[in-house]
Design goal:
Elements: H1 3-22, H2 24-27, H3 31-53, H4 59-63, H5 68-77, H6 82-86, H7 100-128, H8 146-160, H9 163-185
Length: 188
């Protein structure tokens, strides 16, 4: 079993749990509820990117996948000021990210959510009429490059795979799902 297969199998229950708990239909039904959802994503990504960047195995690779700037763009388009955005709550506590392998495990969850974001973007556009310039840049993050970006990430994971690293990667992915669930599904 490859590391990617192991991740998919061992994180499936956590993935299903968060997907069920998110209640996306309700959270993108109105502009207000959608803004609240983006605020929660901003709080997660802001904290996660800061923690992960300190130990990311490849800074350029990591930074090309950061989403906080896209969330800031969306929140501004939805009417928040820069001051309001900088005062938004940050996800705490975040899971420990003590090593490059841990960052990769956490990135598996974040990058996987980007895949789902493409589907959510279509619903946001249909329901609220928002696009990448008017409040949906985060969910459209990689645009047409989404499959390419996922394949590159998968290749990076497989390059890092080893008996020592795989356990850390899978464990951190599971913890990331738990933290993301608790943060995103908490009543805003």
């Amino acid at each position: 079993m490859t590391l990617l297969e192991r991740l998919k199998t061992e994180t499936r229950p956590a993935h299903d749990r968060i997907e069920k708990a998110m209640d996306l239909e309700r959270r993108i039904a109105t502009r207000d509820s959608y803004t609240k959802l983006l605020i929660r994503f901003y709080g997660f990504h802001g904290a996660w990117e800061e923690a992960a960047s300190a130990v990311a195995p490849d800074k350029a690779f990591f930074e090309s996948r950061c989403k906080t700037k896209l969330l800031t763009k969306d929140l501004k388009a939805l009417g928040l000021s820069c001051d309001e955005i900088t005062r938004l709550p940050q996800c705490n506590p975040l899971m420990p990210l003590p090593s490059p392998a841990a960052v990769l495990g956490s990135m598996y969850v974040v990058e996987g959510s980007t895949l789902g974001g493409a589907i959510i973007a279509r619903e946001v556009e249909r329901t609220l009429g928002l696009d990448g310039e008017t409040g949906c840049a985060y969910f459209k993050s990689y645009g047409r490059e989404i499959a390419v970006m996922w394949k590159r990430f998968g290749a990076r994971l497989l390059e890092a795979s080893s008996p020592e690293a795989d356990g850390v990667i899978v464990e951190t992915a599971q913890k990331t799902f738990d933290v993301m669930h608790d943060w995103l599904c908490e009543a805003p």
